[in-house]
Amino acid sequence: MSTIVWENLRNVSPKEISQGINIRQLWQDNAGSQAVIVEIAPGAQWDGIDLHQESSEEVFVISGVFNDGIRDYPEGTFIHHPIGSRHVPQSKTGCKLFVFYPGKQ
Q1: Is the confidence at residue 105, as pLDDT, over 70?
Q2: Do strands 95-101 and 57-67 pair parallel, antiparallel, or not at all (unpaired)?
C-alpha cells in the first residue's frame, strides 16, 4: 500500500537559490521527482540559463507575473518546459510558482 505524503507550506523554510529567488521543497522521491514552491521577488532574475537536460519542468503561476526571458505569464498560467528547453526565470512584479519536476525521463 502506498503512503500519502503531505506538507503544509507554512512548515517549510525558504532556501535562496539565486538572489531574490527562494524555493520551498514540498516533496521529493528517490528517483528525483520533486514538487516545490518558487518565490521570485520583484525585479529578481535567475543567474544564468535554466536548461532542462534530463527532465521536463511543469510550472503553474500561483500569483504575480512570471517571465521566462521571452514572455510574461500571468497568474493562472500553466507552462510545460520540455527536455532540452531553456529559459531565464525572472519577474518584474514578483511571483509565486508551483513547480513540478517529474525526474529523469
Answers
A1: no
A2: antiparallel
